[in-house]
What we know:
Elements: H1 8-19, H2 25-34, H3 47-63, H4 68-81, E1 86-88, E2 96-98, H5 106-125, E3 130-132, E4 141-143, H6 156-172
Helix pairs in contact: 1-5, 3-4, 3-5, 4-5
Amino acid sequence: MHLNPYGEYAVLLAASLANDWPVDRAGIEARTREFGMSMDFSEEADDHEQTRAVIDEWLRIVDAELGQPRADLLNAVMAASAAYPRLTDHAGEGWHLHYRDDAQRLPYVLRVVISVGTALHLTTRGMARLSRCEASPCTNVVVDVTRNGRQRFCSVRCANRAAVRRHRARVIA
C-alpha cells in the first residue's frame, strides 16, 4: 500500500533541482522523470525561469527558522497553489491521489507537488529534517531521510571533509 506519493520523492526532487540546477527546461523535465513523475507537460517559453522561482521559493522554506516560521511559509505556498485533492488513473498507473489540477504547466505542478511533499516530509519525519549541508563552504540542501534523523551533510564527500577538518583541529590544538 502506497499512502504517500508526494512525500520523500518530491522533497528529494526539489533538493536535486536546488543543488544542481538544470541548464534548460528539458533538463528539469528529465529530472522529474528520474524522481518518478510520469506526467507530460505542455511547453511554455518561461517554464525554466518560472520553475527556478518555485525552487527559490522552496529554498526560503529550507532556510526558515524551525517551527512556526517554517510552517507559516510552507502554509502560504500551499494556500497559494492548492487545488482540491482528486483521484486519478492517468496512464493506467492505478488509482492514486493528486493534490493538483490536471493539465497545469510544469512550474505550477512542481510548486504543488514540492510544497505538499515538503509538508508531508516535515510532519511525518520532523521539522528539522530539511536543512543546509554543515560542511562549509557547501550550501547544498540536505533532505534527512535517515532512520535516526541525524543527517547533517549532503554527501559522503562533505561528511569526510568535515571529519578531516575536525581531526586537524584536534591535532593542531
